Amino acid sequence: MQGGFFMFNFLSLKLGFSFTEPNPDSGDYFTFTKEGKIAMIIISVLLVLIPVLVYNFCFKKKNDESVSENDAKQRNKSAAKRKAMLSTKELVVSAVCIALAYVCSSIKFFEMPYGGSITLFSMFFMTFIGYCFGLRTGVLCGLAYGVFQLIQDPWLLSPLQICFDYLFAFAALGLSGIFRNLKTKDKQTGEKRLTKYGLIFGYAFAAFARGISHVIGGYLFWMDSMPEKFPKSLSFIYPFVYNFSFIGAEMIMTVIVLMIPGVAKVFIRLRREANS
């Protein structure tokens, strides 16, 4: 297991301090040291800032190039469709959602022995980013949030395990953007309007995708943690049972709340305000 962290070990030798240490709850696993947590915070910030800055710089440079008179009309027509990777409003709203998700993730109704917990709707706030701004913003913010979760509750075996249990899993919450434009016809006016089912289906799909990432990680890294009392003949479903026991419970709780009349309308209105 220690061999999986060869990069961390190499950097530790060069910098004179360690990024990881044995988990006090279980010596078979690792957790981050204080220095490692600081490094991961820096990495999570860079994950968002570097793509945004590079994209915006390249986009601005491209827009600053001179064009001929014949291309002027075409440029003016397409200018309205162009925008930076993340606008100021997107950054602010996304940062608020990440902060709310992080705080709510620390409010746990139930916690599993090897990571994972039923929280106070923390997944919803991350899926709301994708619902508001689409896949690109949702996945990018989910990836950064995955690093914060890695800092908050680390269970470390290898870099690939970190990807499936943290980075890929929480980036998947941005897939809620697939359903962001789901609309229904208004019976009175006949106009197409955003429906609460776009919000609910997006949340459920993204949460399910997160669970699948955990399940893959479970098959690859966590089968040894299967309880002895669990039927050996059903060992192939153990990762599903373990991961969807807490993800499924939080999904059901959240969907019930979103189905309450007026709740989804509030978030649809917030989305309109965020995109205005």
Oligomer: single chain
Calculate Rg over CA atoms: 22 Å
Gross morphology is globular
**Topology as H/E string?**
HEEHHHEEHHHEEHHH
Q: Mean pLDDT score, rounded?
A: 80
Q: Termini separation (Å)?
A: 50 Å
- Look at the structure and give the CATH class: Mainly Alpha
Give the name of the CATH architecture. Orthogonal Bundle
Strand-pairing-aware structural class: mainly alpha
Q: Classify the fold: give the CATH topology.
A: Arp2/3 complex 21 kDa subunit ARPC3
* Count of DSSP H/I helices: 10
Instruction: State the strand order across the main sheet.
Output: 1-2
How would you concisely characterize the structure shown here?
With 276 residues, the protein is mainly α.
Describe the protein's architecture and organization.
This protein is mainly alpha-helical. The protein has one domain (2-275): Arp2/3 complex 21 kDa subunit ARPC3. 63% of the residues lie in helices and 9% in strands. The strands form three sheets. Strands 1-2 form a two-stranded antiparallel ribbon. Strands 3-4 form a two-stranded antiparallel sheet. It has a two-stranded antiparallel sheet with strand order 5-6. The chain is globular and about 60 Å long. The termini are far apart. Residues 1-8, 10-16, 64-70 and 77-82 have low confidence and may be disordered.
